[in-house]
TrEMBL record:
Protein name listed in UniProt: F-box and leucine-rich repeat protein 22
Entries under InterPro entries matching the protein: F-box_dom, Leu-rich_rpt_Cys-con_subtyp, LRR_dom_sf
Signal peptide span: none
Alphabetized UniProt keyword annotations: Leucine-rich repeat
């Protein structure tokens, strides 16, 4: 049947399949493989965990418009722990996936210049660097949704002003290192952006080990004073 259908019809049919089914079909014959590799088939990509990025069941290209990497798992809590506070087990757990999203976004920056919408949720290992790279490389970006991305800071907000000329909607929910000052800066300098930031500026930000240790030592000393008094 596929031999009697043109490329556009086959693209339309395969667009109803999930990534794994699409790849399975592509392995049946050369013609379907060509359709599978056609960038027009991949205007939308949804991933529900970093491990899905390892699978060879999708194609990155200039036709990608909508991208989402969302991870809702108990392991996200481990990723969100500050690196210097993690025990060896937690470090080993994170080492298996900590660079996956970052490496993937690097490929997006070089291969997907026409991206319109990016959603990253529960991606605890991405930093300002990766988000800024997307802003610089994907000038047509209209929507940026960051949720529970704990390493994202006000540097990303500053980059929105410099490189996010096309942005209309920005969400930075539960990003603990975003500050009220950063949000206010965006509202003043980019009033055209519809900005939402649930809980972000009200969370406890990261702090350096020496500062944490100083607080811990002060509390310990206070307890000893109270015990002796």
């Amino acid at each position: 049947l596929h031999s009697t259908l043109n490329q556009e019809c086959l693209l339309h049919l395969l667009s109803y399949l999930d990534k794994d089914s699409c790849r399975s079909f592509s392995l049946t014959c050369h013609r379907l493989r060509e359709v599978y590799l056609d960038p027009r088939l991949w205007s939308l990509l949804l991933f529900h965990s970093p491990s899905e990025l390892r699978r060879e069941n999708y194609v990155l290209g200039s036709s990608l418009r909508y991208l989402a990497v969302t991870w809702h798992s108990s392991r996200v809590k481990v990723c969100n722990i500050e690196d210097w506070m993690k025990n060896q087990f937690q470090k080993d757990l994170c080492s298996k996936h900590e660079s996956l999203v970052s490496s993937f976004l690097e490929r997006v920056c070089t291969m997907c210049p026409n991206l319109l919408s990016l959603t990253l949720s529960g991606c605890g290992h991405i930093s300002d660097q990766e988000v800024i790279c997307v802003l610089q490389s994907c000038s047509r970006l209209r929507s940026l949704h960051l949720e529970n991305c704990v390493r994202v800071t006000d540097l990303t907000l500053q980059a929105l002003v410099l490189h996010g000329a096309g942005l209309h909607q920005v969400t930075v929910d539960f990003c603990r290192n975003i500050t009220r000052a950063g949000l206010q800066m965006i509202r003043e300098r980019r009033p055209d952006i519809r900005l939402t930031a649930e809980r972000s500026a009200g969370m406890i930000p990261d702090s350096k080990p020496d500062k944490r240790n100083a607080i811990w030592e002060t509390n310990l000393l206070l307890k000893k004073v109270l015990q002796l008094s």
